[in-house]
Amino acid sequence: MTPILPGQGRVPYTPLRKKEPAYSGPIVVARDEGIVEEQPYGRSIKLLCNETVGDETFTLAERTYEPGRESQVVEKHDSEAVHILEGQGIYAAWPANVSDDRPITAPLQPGMEIITGQFVKHRIRNTGDSPLVAVVTECHADFPAYPHNYPAIFQPGKGTDIHQHDNRVEAFYVVQGPGAVIIADPDNTTTRELMVPERGAAYQPMYVYHRQFNPEPDGEPCYLIHSMVVYTHRGSRMPQVHIRQHELDGKTPLWEADSHL
Question: Is the pTM of this model over 0.90?
Answer without folding.
Answer: yes
